[in-house]
Design goal:
With 124 residues, the chain is mainly beta. The chain has helices spanning 62-67, 90-93; strands at 2-10, 23-29, 42-46, 55-60, 77-82. Strands 1-2-3-5-4 form a five-stranded mixed barrel. The longest helix is centred in the middle third of the chain and has 6 residues, at 62-67. The protein is elongated and about 50 Å long. The chain starts with a strand and ends in a 31-residue tail after the last helix.
Length: 124
């Protein structure tokens, strides 16, 4: 799964009938995602009613097809949730290779907010 921001919507008058009436959104992954190809955007189906400007969680491959209802659905990316908040520990994210698959340090692609008072520092 990756984090990204919805930056647009795709309108298509003709599409594969297996897509049904699925809404297609353009998602720009945040800096921590290093795609295998040079593209900087994804087109993902949306069943959670995300909109332009929303931070979202996107799954790729077989989980995306399963979320669309069938393994033969022509879907490679699906939005699974709208993000309310992301908390990073700045000390841990500053080092290169801060996690599996991360090839560069995180540079503020997402806002870093301190835990709200009374939450005990729990991360979501």
């Amino acid at each position: 799964m990756i984090l990204g921001r919805v930056i647009g919507e795709v309108w298509a008058t003709r599409r594969d009938p297996r897509l049904g009436r699925a809404k297609l959104l353009v998602v720009r992954p945040h800096g921590l995602y290093e795609p295998a190809f040079g593209g900087r955007h994804l087109v993902a189906t949306d069943d959670v009613h995300a909109g332009v400007g929303d931070e979202v969680i996107v799954c790729l491959g077989a989980p995306a097809r399963a979320s669309a209802g069938s393994n033969d659905t022509p879907v490679d990316a699906a939005i699974l949730g709208v993000v309310d908040r992301v908390d990073f520990d700045p000390g841990l994210t500053a080092a290169p290779g801060a996690g599996p698959g991360i090839k560069r340090p995180l540079t503020g692609a997402l806002s870093v907010a301190p835990p709200a008072a009374g939450t005990g520092g729990a991360r979501r």
